[in-house]
Amino acid sequence: MWLNTKVLVVGGGPAGVTAARVLAESGVDVILLERNLSFVKPCGGGVSLSAFEELGIPKTTIKKEVKNVRIVSPKGERLDMGLRDGNLAIVERGEFERVLRNRAEEQGAEVIEGDFVRIIDDNDKIYRVEARVGDVMTEIAAEYIIAADGVNSRVRTAMGIKPSKSLFTFSERIKEVETGFCELWFGSSHAPGVYSWVFPATDGISAGTGSFEPGEIKVLFGRFKQRRGIIAEGRKRIYRIPIWKGNLYNKGKVIFAGDSAGQVIPLIYEGIYYAMKAGEFAAGAIIEKKVGNYKRRWKARFQKRFTLMDKLRDYFFKDNASAERLVALHRRPEIQELSLRLWIKKDSSMEGFKDYIKLFGKFLS
Known about the structure:
Largest sheet: 8 strands, mixed
CATH topology of the largest domain: FAD/NAD(P)-binding domain
Order of helices and strands: EHEEHEEEEHEEEEHEEEEHEEEHHHHH
Radius of gyration: 21 Å
Low-confidence stretches: none
CATH architecture of the largest domain: 3-Layer(bba) Sandwich
Oligomer: single chain
């Protein structure tokens, strides 16, 4: 089988479906190739309410709204912060992506369930891609490729680009426990260099922890459950989160967006919003016929924010004493407000960013 398209989007997560929708809305011929339309990525499912307006996400996908964040220091000091008008929406990833995919199809994108296999040939004008659709080997010719196929990106591999460094997570969906907070727990005994979490879910909670050493992740999660007082068992998942480096945007007319480009913000490791913005920026660059606009737009909007969060992570996650300091600092109302503006409300103003630098500058030198 042989297919032709202007743009081939590989990957049907937030980055891919957003790119496909924006392209289709502009009348660009686009194929979205997703290897498993039933796949549900392990994820807390938190999305800022402000993102729904900004990105045109249907609010029918919201399952719960969370109005409070709780952070817990290694010594057990608790700090509860109200989100006020910046509530956090909880979505179910499978349904969320299905709704977004349907919107892309309604606009004219062709959605195909199939595996990206390899790039057969590329020249200055056309990429020829081999894909397995069911039992049929299919060739797809495209002028552009958007690689939105996640942390294990096959397109990255096909282009000879090394995998990104990863954070490993162990998570569990537990029905018998409830919480009204997005909880972030710090402590090297169960989350060395990162944090453990408990988020509200549609039915119960999503709990998990992270580690840069995959061999210890199950033990660490067990310690966290004991500390949090969780006895019940649920569905367990292990997954990788890419570590941002900011060094991959495109190679020729192949654009990398979302997890394939490592676009998960440091410190809090949030990816959905930034993946969708990456898809939007990638589509815009193709519509403008200037691939380089993707990198320029991304860096103008997010580079300083990601760099700041990367430095704060290196400082505050280096040991328990530094994590204690992070929690203590957030008892100051002005730091709470600025953090929530950047983390939850997605404030992109330079004023807020400069204020944040002033408050945390002494930790970044």
